[in-house]
Design goal:
alpha/beta, FAD/NAD(P)-binding domain, five-stranded parallel sheet, 32 strands
Amino acid sequence: MRIVIVGGVAAGMSTAARARRLDESAEIIVFERDAFVSFANCGLPYHIGEVIEDRDRLLLQTPESLRASLNLDVRVGTEVVAIDPVARTVTARVNATGVEEQLSYDRLVLCPGAVPMVPPLPGVEDPRIHVLRRMEDMDAIKARVDAVDTDGRPQVNHAVVIGGGYIGLEMAENLRHRGRDVALVELADQLMPPLDRELTSAMEGHLRANGVALHLGVGASSFAPTADGRLGVTLADGTELTTDLVLLAAGVRPNTALAEAAGVELGPRGGIAVDDHLRTNLPDVYAAGDAVEVRHRVLPGPWLIPLAGPANRQGRVVADNLCGRDTTFGEVQGTGIVKVFDLTAGGVGANQRQLEAAGIPFERVHLHPSGHAGYYPGTAAMHLKVLFAPDTGRLLGAGIVGYDGVDKRLDVLATALSAGLTVYDLETLELAYAPPFGSAKDPVNMAGFLGANLLRGDLRLWYAEAFEEETAGARLLDVRGPEEFAAGHLPGAEHLPLDQLRAAVDDLDRDQPVRLYCAVGFRSYLAYRILVQHGFADVATLAGGMHSYRAATELQADSELLPRQPVISYAEAATAAGAAAR
């Protein structure tokens, strides 16, 4: 059996390697149009930033090593330019010579990957404008960043990164590691669109604190050389940036031209349509990787989710089926994570915007636990948001932003979502605990407690975006301490510290709605339990407290949250209210 694979890297090389492990007699040929067939493309920004100093560490395999270990015929610098599914042949062209060869196949695997999106803007062809997808792209960008004038000064002092996703954020960080000024431009009104807005506001503040200028909610409109020989970037709002290098990181699209020309059917999102065995509509033609549309574990319809993990798994599934096994590829849940200086952000499953767009009912909780035991040094609060079904409690998605322990919680939640677990299951998970690593009640457990309390009716939440609606006609009580209240509080709030609440219960109107809040939601939860057990009919507590409110309302400092007001105690407010009533 001759297996021809178009494209290497994650999906193609996973297919080839597993096919060899399953079938020693097969002839396996891999065509890769670039010079490198197996490299760590996720590591490219870190070599530019010189975090990974040795370029060769990014090269995982070579044609020679693959021939020696797996007896694979890997042909780099060779592009497949045509497929004849009737004759069952491919036509491959050697880039260096232009010589073409026609080769027959018994099984054909398409792993063409994705290509960076380059918007058709005036001046976008300027050689100082780059994309980052291949080793050659990395080399070109690093050479430009490394270049110095005759007096030893860098030729690149400023860079503009267009796109606030994974690659854009990693490049902004690594260019700052190299001491370059960086401006990041993102068309959406937030960074990291896979995460909900309230999770990304902390990232924005962290980037600004590390010297990255942010331009959110605006795109680039044109590029042009400046009078002094630099590069001008004009944004859609009229802002003019002057720079030395531009990185386009505005997303990728599936590379489907070859497949489409051969008659391969595409799906509604423009990727290659495949069945559960990753077969295309053409006989004995399979596809895997970033060009393939997949089923989402939570959301309806096909999706394009260009991530390395699913691509590698798809390669294994294709190889199984090539070699006579009946293996299917399941669903993808989009688990992703990114490092932004000292901050880590990640998500899994669906976010709130996606659930709302799909019409999927959900509940959600916000919490701000520490990465490990608070009394052990080196931790900080994270922002954890978990979404789940209101009937069963089944996990639908989660997002986390924080400084330590984010990755381990994300992996636990990703496993739980994959297994179909519920918030009730999160309550009972037994996770590793010692003070340097976690807490006896892990953040994942805490998310389960909150979610289960909500579904059982032990807790009712209100959310920052519904402030006007929730507080209209309600008594808004801030149950934090005096200093916290004085530093900033919600408009219209009365100050009633938690330790004074029980004594004041009889003075409160049980028929008036009460809306509670504190810093992160714990003290207001205690206050909630006190009030409902004293017969208050309409009580709710702010999800995630003031921390979540600030994030949701895009306000980063207490002084910006609201005008500083004199501290008004509950007793003073009650006296004033009584006087007004009389």
